[in-house]
Amino acid sequence: MTDENRRAAIAKELAHADQAYRAAVMLRDAGLFNDCLSRLYYALFHTMVALLLTVGVEPRRHRALPHLLGQHVSNVLTASEIAAVGRAATYRELADYERAWDADAEAVSEAFAEIDRLIKRARAHLVGGGWAA
What we know:
single chain; mainly alpha; 74% helix; globular
């Protein structure tokens, strides 16, 4: 993959991340907390994929994401930040697949605080490295 193709793929991932984040905010504001957590995870997922694309890595499965981050961008994200990606994935799985589990405003607030920080760090790295505007 050329740098030009990589930049285009990163831009597409960030556009998907922005759209998912906007949806998460709207769902949170509507009190649809499970759906909110699912979309918030996808905002993070697409941002992390963009980060991995800078080193030529493209995840094939969601479960592989934390491992790939630890293996390829541990110089960008701390171990606790990579663990936060795993927590976000767990929230998404609960929200999407666990009938007996319902997210509440507190869980959503905590998830937004953690994920906002991660997205900002990743985007700052992407901009600083010339991968994104």
